Amino acid sequence: MHDLKKIKSEFLAKLKGKVNLSEINQIKSNLFGKNGLISSQFKKIGSIEVSRRKKFASDLNFIKDELQGLINLKLKELENVEINEKLEKEKIDITLPERPFVRGRIHPVSQTIDEISSIFSEIGFSVEEGPDVENEYNNFTALNTPDNHPARDMHDTFYLDEKKQKLLRTHTSPVQIRTMLKDKPPFKIIAPGRTYRSDSDQTHSPMFHQVEGLHIDTNINMGHLKGCLSYFIKEFFEVKKIKMRFRPSHFPFTEPSAEVDIGYEIKDGKIIIGEGDKWLEILGCGMVHPNVLRNVKVDPAKYQGYAFGIGIDRLAMLKYGINDLRAFFDCDYRWLNHFGFDPLDVPSNYRGLSR
Ligand code: DAH
After folding, report:
1. β-bridge partners, 286
2. Ligand 1 centre from 343 Cα, in Å?
3. What would you report as the CA-atom Rg of the chain, rounded to the nearest whole angstrom?
4. Measured between alpha carbons, how far is 112 from 322 in angstroms, rounded to an integer?
5. Residue 172, φ and ψ in degrees, nearest 5
6. CATH assignment of 108-339?
7. Pairing mode of beta strands 126-127, 187-196
8. What would you measure as the largest C-alpha separation in the chain, in angstroms?
9. For a substitution probing ligand 1, which of 251, 255, 281, 314 has the most ligand atoms within 8 Å of its CB?
10. Cys-Cys crosslink for 174: which of 138, 143, 260, 263, Cβ 3.0 to 4.6 Å?
11. Residues of the chain with pLDDT > 90: what percent?
């Protein structure tokens, strides 16, 4: 018993004084280590006379808990002191110049969509979106493409159910329908997004991107369409002059319909847009078919307008000199590092689209 009292008073004094971390650890091992003072007392229990054993054991446990509690308290205190000292010392010098953070790059397709949206917003178009999973009606029927229409086969559609009611949209044109169904004319929108067709080679990917354009009002004609597209192409390719030709074509949802080619030439292995005697097809367009307007409860005697559909990936390839479409979707980090854009380089017409 005498031993216990001595241990207690000796170590209480020690722990109440000023101790550092290594001293505490030393005390801990002196008391509770394999041959520590407290541990040895525990080993002694069996040899103590029966009448005193119970009291001894309970005193011992009491002292053990008290000392252990004190040690833990001291450790916690020291930890706090250490943290506070660290916080005092560690200061961020906000006057230091920032380090440029250049890990992530914006994908050329995203950048191109931003550029397109910026250009069209300057002339009053707003941006609409529609879902990738469409119904058959919006994708075909409402767009004047009835069952058995050959255009349905040409679209290599991914159907999602046996009855062919749900599909992955084959173009962004169904967003025309969604927009006109939910609002009243006039309409002046673009709708960029993903589209899907079962097709894959160097210039086709089963998932690709289009932007749809739609302008419906009381006095819109083909001249407006030409003006709008020629403005867009010039802005997009950042050229002053552009050679453009409208080739008669057919789409079920427009009448008349046209495909638009732009002139280009190859100089020193580089493609120059807007000049030369070669032609490149970049979009489909036309005056919205009266049947489409009727399908969305717009009176074709009062309202008419134009629509167009542009392949976004194609435009990005031309503008940024990328020659394999499939690379867009390979997720190769090195490719993205090379062709990607700085996240802070947000396109705007005012300060130039691409820098
Ligand atoms: N949807 C057509 C396609 O994917 C492109 C298109 C052509 C859209 C003419 C239009 C349009 O809005 O008027 O091939």
Report:
1. 257, 307
2. 31
3. 38
4. 13
5. -90, 0
6. 3.30.930.10
7. parallel
8. 115
9. 251
10. 138
11. 52
Instruction: Calculate the alpha carbon distances from 286 to 184, 214, 281, 308 in Å.
Output: 21, 10, 15, 7
**Contact call for residues 127 and 275 (beta carbons, < 8 A):** no
| Beta strand spans in 133-196 (E) | 133-135, 166-168, 187-196
Q: Which of 154, 249, 308 to mutate to test the pocket of ligand 1 (most atoms within 8 A of CB)?
A: 308
Task: List the structure tokens of 44.
Answer: 């002694």
Q: How many CB atoms lie within 10 A of CB 301?
A: 7
Q: Over the stretch 299-322, which tens digit does the pLDDT of each residue have? A: 999 999 999 999 999 899 988 888
CB under 8 Å to 10, separation ≥6 — which residues? Answer: none
- In the predicted structure, residue 349 carries a pLDDT above the cut 70: no
Give me the phi and psi of 301, to 5 degrees please. Answer: -75, -25
Distance of CA 2 from the midpoint of ligand 1 (Å): 99
Number of H helices, E strands in the chain: 12, 10
Asked whether the predicted pLDDT for residue 350 surpasses 80, the reply is no
The C-alpha atoms of residue 44 and residue 252 are separated, in whole angstroms, by 100
- Nearest atom (ligand 1) to Cα of 309: 8
DSSP classification of residue 232:
H
Residue extents of the structural domains in the chain: 2-89, 108-339
Which has more confidence, 93 or 118? 118
- C-alpha to C-alpha distance for 289 and 20, rounded to whole angstroms: 87
